[in-house]
UniProtKB/TrEMBL annotation:
Taxonomy of the source species: Bacteria, Pseudomonadati, Pseudomonadota, Alphaproteobacteria, Rhodospirillales
Keywords per UniProt: DNA-binding, Transcription, Transcription regulation
The keyword Transcription belongs to this UniProt entry's keyword annotation: yes
Ranges for domain HTH marR-type: 23-155
Gene Ontology MF term list: DNA binding; DNA-binding transcription factor activity; oxidoreductase activity; zinc ion binding
Protein name: MarR family transcriptional regulator
A Gene Ontology BP annotation from the UniProt entry: response to stress
Source organism of the structure: Pelagibius litoralis
Length: 157
């Protein structure tokens, strides 16, 4: 019978986590805040059955009429694969229409349908309510600071 030698684990060091606090890490805190904001968003969306990304696309199109899908993704802060999926799902629901750009057959142009325009109009009214509810536990000064800091952090990417 062959003896199996189990390696001895290295000795614990400070780098092994004695001083590490997950609850103090930016990624953990952002994820937790995102989960809270998502819960508030979903509670307000009700039967509309929209994701935050779909919300962003509809509101962006309301303000821009018709956009190339790539430009739509840039404005709504989505990578090309994500915006493609979002647009496809909204098109299946009859909320957006997609056509090929006559000037460039490689580009897809996206615009709201009548139903999409109606829903986007409702969303513009709901958006500030969602923001107020999400930030309600913070003082007005802390709300401004948080939004400013998040915007600054987001500009880095």
């Amino acid at each position: 019978m062959t003896e199996v030698k189990v390696p001895t684990p290295p000795q614990a060091t400070e780098a092994d986590g004695d001083d590490y606090r997950l609850e103090q890490q930016i990624g953990f805190l952002l994820r937790r805040a995102h989960q809270y904001a998502s819960d508030v968003f979903q509670a307000r969306m009700g039967a509309r059955n929209l994701t935050p990304q779909q919300f962003s696309v509809l509101v962006t199109l309301l303000k821009n009429r018709e956009l190339a899908q790539t430009k739509l993704g840039e404005i709504a802060a989505m990578d090309p694969a994500t915006v493609l999926g979002v647009v496809q799902r909204l098109a299946q629901r009859g909320l957006v229409a997609v056509r090929t750009d006559p000037a460039d057959g490689r580009r897809r142009l996206v615009q709201l349908t009548r139903d999409g325009h109606e829903m986007a109009g409702e969303l513009v009214a709901i958006g500030p309510v969602i923001s107020r509810e999400t930030l309600a536990g913070l003082s007005p000064e802390d709300q401004r600071d948080l939004l400013r800091l998040l915007d600054s952090l987001g500009q880095k990417g």
